[in-house]
Design brief:
Dihydrodipicolinate Reductase, domain 2; Rossmann fold
């Protein structure tokens, strides 16, 4: 787990209490001081099996910036070294580093840490550094409390930091403290856990919404306050699970009047955009499940609602938070992949076993009328999110209608493929659909320094998309073949491991809540990136209908582009009337009612609600 990080900023009031009688400060001078230094640090900072020479070299001597005679200070009692602190200036940014703060075990618990902090701060001031930093751990409780007392401030720099600091403040009975970003700018004043505001969350869609509702009941930064669903058995199941502390609605407009900070939309995918707009107009932030819109008119209206209301809109593309693609993005941002050149993503899902449940055996359910390209963002979205670049052109390819889709009552091709060009010329291949014969969730990305890819779903020993292989060079042109398994866990993985989609649902909710709390480091997909994920599929189907012609992907960040599409309602939803396209490029297949009757019989045999 990442250590806690703290900063001291110039201008922070500094204490200069006189040392108690018998105590003094000195500097490192001779070889024998290494043993005294190691004795001070044998409280968890150095290994018990390390010799003084090894311990001192590993922590001090191996750092080129540290000159021991200048930078290593001792707190002495009657001439004996009983505490130490090292202060040096980092080469990379000129910041002051407060390093290896320790009191010998037999002198701990006497409040002597504050004098080491004062010595460190005086050294930071003398060296005129832009800021000072230190790292520590929660288990060093006395040290953490003394750093806070000395004016060091918590830093938001890794997943879960705000929550960890709120727990620290609660333990120490400290009501609040300013938290900083890693660049030293203010993040926000955070409060101890018992005082921290929990975001009030309402959820529309009590079926798919269970993962999001569960998050609110498991973690301390959100509170489930309202649930809306117009299907009585699903709503009743939610009532049995979440109890009477939550309000239940079967009418969306009544639900919208409830006191809540944000709404999670987990309703039917073809109805997300209208409800998202209504929520934002009512002063509610929104996280929308996939997909964001179904037509260009909705896309323009959704973007302009976000801009007009100023509310937060987050797109819930949970596959971005699967273990392998999540770590791929981090490594790419760190420069490990080099220049992004190519990526492939697959979301091939044989849905036949559950299609009766997924569509309620309704011939006009949105899943039965969508094209092969509509549900594109599980395969394409993570690639867009990893690269951080905008798609500019797409060509679509549609697999032919098959017997599986007939048996499911789905009127589209079983899967589609998008070949996408990004703004830097890189290429993406996205394959996805609900009617292939086998499942596959898989991602690979190539760059100028090598390749990263998840394990295949068939490789059960490596647990598929939870596993990441990296084969990367340190420098472009090295051409070393060195495939390795890369860890995908981070500071919050253990808390999210049991949630849906390999922990991705909780990651998605966590980052949404962090965004609501004002954290600019929250890893979320905003409305513009949501369109970068969705529009290539929309225009891939237009490409197929045009005989495979490449299509430009509009940039709806630009008003002039929006104006071209503002009234375009073309989609495969039959409710679009004269603007409705066939679900399959060669025309809607004729599927008799008996297919849906058979699906209904299967659905009737399920015990969906534990009754």
């Amino acid at each position: 787990m990442s250590q806690l990080k703290m900063y001291w900023l110039p201008g922070t009031p500094a204490c200069d209490d006189p040392l108690p009688e018998g105590y003094s400060f000195s500097n490192y001078k001779v070889e024998a001081d290494k043993q005294a230094w190691t004795d001070c640090c044998r409280n968890g900072l150095v290994g018990d099996d390390e010799s003084a020479e090894e311990a001192f070299h590993n922590a001090i001597g191996s750092r080129e910036e540290i000159v021991p005679e200048r930078d290593v200070f001792f707190l002495d009692y009657q001439g004996e070294h009983i505490g130490t602190v090292t202060v040096f200036v980092r080469e990379e940014d000129g910041a002051g580093d407060v390093h290896m703060v320790a009191i010998r075990t037999d002198f701990r618990g006497r409040g002597l840490g504050k004098y080491l902090n004062q010595k460190a701060i005086r050294a930071l001031i003398e060296r005129n550094v832009p800021y000072g930093l230190l790292t520590t751990d929660e288990w060093r409780k006395g040290a953490v409390k003394s750093y806070l007392s000395a004016g060091f401030l918590p830093v938001e720099y890794a997943q879960g930091m705000q929550d960890r600091w709120e727990a620290v403040l609660e333990e120490y009975g400290i009501d609040s403290v300013q938290m900083l970003y890693e660049d030293t700018t203010p993040f926000r004043v955070i409060e101890r856990k018992g005082l921290a505001h929990k975001m009030k969350i309402g959820v529309v869609g009590a079926g798919r919404g269970q993962s999001m509702m569960d998050y609110c009941t498991k973690f301390g930064n959100a509170e489930l306050v309202a649930i809306c669903d117009n299907y009585a058995p699903v709503l009743e199941r939610a009532r049995r699970k979440y109890g009477d502390a939550v309000a239940y609605y079967d009418d969306f407009e009544a639900f919208l009047q409830h006191d809540m900070d944000a709404v999670v939309l987990a309703n039917f995918a073809n109805a997300h955009a209208p409800l998202a707009i209504r929520c934002m107009e009512a002063g509610k932030h929104v996280m929308s499940e996939v997909l964001p819109v179904q037509s260009m008119r909705e896309a323009v209206e959704l973007i302009e609602a976000v801009e007009r209301t100023g509310m937060i809109y987050v797109y819930g593309e949970n596959y971005c938070y699967m273990p392998a693609p999540r770590r791929m993005r981090e490594l790419y941002k760190e420069g490990k992949l080099g220049t992004f050149e190519y990526g492939e993503g697959e979301y091939m899902h044989n849905c036949e076993p559950d299609w009766d449940y997924l569509t309620y055996a309704d011939p006009n359910h949105w899943r039965n009328t969508m094209s092969a390209f509509y549900y594109c963002t599980h395969s394409l979205g993570p690639l867009v999110h990893i690269s951080g670049m905008r798609p500019v052109k797409v060509t679509g390819f549609e697999a032919p209608f098959n017997d599986r889709m007939y048996r499911m009552g789905a009127k589209a091709g079983p899967f589609g493929i998008e070949m996408v060009t990004l703004e830097n010329g890189a290429i993406l291949k996205s394959a996805h659909g609900v009617g292939p014969s086998r499942n596959s969730v898989w991602y690979t990305v190539y760059g100028s320094k090598g390749r990263m890819e998840s394990a295949r779903e068939d490789d059960r020993a490596q647990d598929g998309v939870r596993t990441l292989y990296v084969n990367l060079d340190e420098n472009e042109g090295d051409n070393h073949f060195d495939p390795q398994l890369a860890p995908t866990d981070d500071d919050v993985s253990e808390f999210f491991a049991e949630s849906g989609h390999g922990g991705a649902d909780d990651y998605m909710m966590y980052n949404f809540i962090q965004k609501l709390r004002g954290n600019r480091n929250a890893d979320v997909v905003d409305v513009y990136e949501a369109m970068d994920m969705y529009l290539p599929g929309h225009f891939a189907y237009r490409s197929v209908l045009a005989g495979g012609m490449p299509m430009d992907v509009p940039d709806l960040r630009n008003l002039s582009e929006r104006d071209k599409w503002r009234t375009d309602e073309t989609c495969t939803d039959p409710a679009a009337g004269e603007n409705a396209l066939p679900s399959y490029s060669e025309g809607n297949p004729a599927i008799p009612q008996e297919v849906y009757d058979k699906l209904q019989t299967k659905l009737d045999g399920r015990n969906l609600f534990g009754e």
